[in-house]
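re: that chain from earlier
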Amino acid sequence: MSTRHVDLAVLGGGAAGLAAVREARRRGASALMVNAGPIGGDCTFTGCVPSKTLIEAARVGASFGEAFGRVRSVVDRIASSETADVLRAEGIEVIDEVGEITGPGRLRAGSTAVEAGGVVVAIGSRPAVPPIPGLDAVEPLTSDSFWSLGQAPTSLAVIGGGAIGCELSQALALLGVEVTLIEMAPRLLASEEPASSGVVARALDAAGVTVRTGVAVERVERRTDGAVLHLDDGSLVAAEQVLVATGRRSNADRSGLSAAGLDLDERGYVATSDDLKTTMARTYAAGDITGRVQLTHAADQMGRIAAGNSLRRLGRTRFVADRIPRVTFTDPEVASVGATEADAALRWPKARVVELPLDEHDRAIAADRTDGFIKLIAAPKPVIGHLGGGHLVGASIVAPRAGEMLGELTLALALKTFVGRVALTAHPYPTWSYGIQKAVGQFFTEIEGRTHRPVGG
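^ sequence. v structure.
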């Protein structure tokens, strides 16, 4: 068995793994990636890239075949920038084998032993399939297997009303599929503002999706023409195919991490401190496997933080989940960062809230897209309170370009800057982002009859 010696070894080739090895090279360190199969992870092949391509194709009226052809083309193009050959050209070693941790700073990958100054574990997660009686028998689709569809089903039952369920339901309905979306929580997008859920529910209804909330699937019956879902309110939903979009589960059970000595939390994810250090010496974890924030851009940031912390001698960078923006790519989009109002009321009881409905936003009126809003939450600063408007602790936007509007608010939140600085920054009129300036101004004065209110009020 040969032995390789490097400064940083990374187990996994998704967003977190890619960020970690590239951060190591940026710092002048030697880096090695162990990953079996194509590099790029879920985001490139079964997540962000294909789903957003499908959504865009559906919005412009493409057929099912055209949309899936576009998906394959875009995935191939983006994946070509993340291959082993590309990484090797950047000075990164790649071993295309299943790897395992054998001790602090040690990996085994096929016939190669790796001795590293530090290790980053970035082996990701996979779709979770709930233990509903009869579900396995109908061979449900997941966000992984969905992309193998050869032709459009006549009807589709989607279990799960989170971001993935909402996005794919709307896209498939626009592509001509009869879609029923089932969510056991009282509303869609349960982790977002209730008003966001309402806008998305109306948008899905307008696209032709039948939305069922507050009901659970008790069992699934297989039939020759598809499946019948028995709901706990006594109703039935028949569909040719079923898509499960009920979250994800850790890949730790597939990699023997616990046997190697890494502690897992109660959900099966790798236990980490805020600086992403695991319970094993010289070993960090990043991305979905930490169970922290399961988003590609969060994985990218964690990969860079974990690599940097492993390689630096002094000081540690913390990963702060509150600073990670979230976007659901329905039409309109739902974008948020930091706390919802319900959370803010518990953490910052003296916080203040401003809101701007899109029917009072000139760009939305011009575009005739007025179902949505901008909502900002600011907490008082220590000692000086609300002087300068306080600092932003939460933002939610529902609008056609909400994801693009969120950047400046994420920066303001991360820097804990005075919201007055956002209010005083000139925003071009009449852009979608101009609404942010109009909303922020309410922290200081009444604008067109609107002003701030207490959080929870």
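The CA atoms of residues 229 and 237 lie 5 Å apart.
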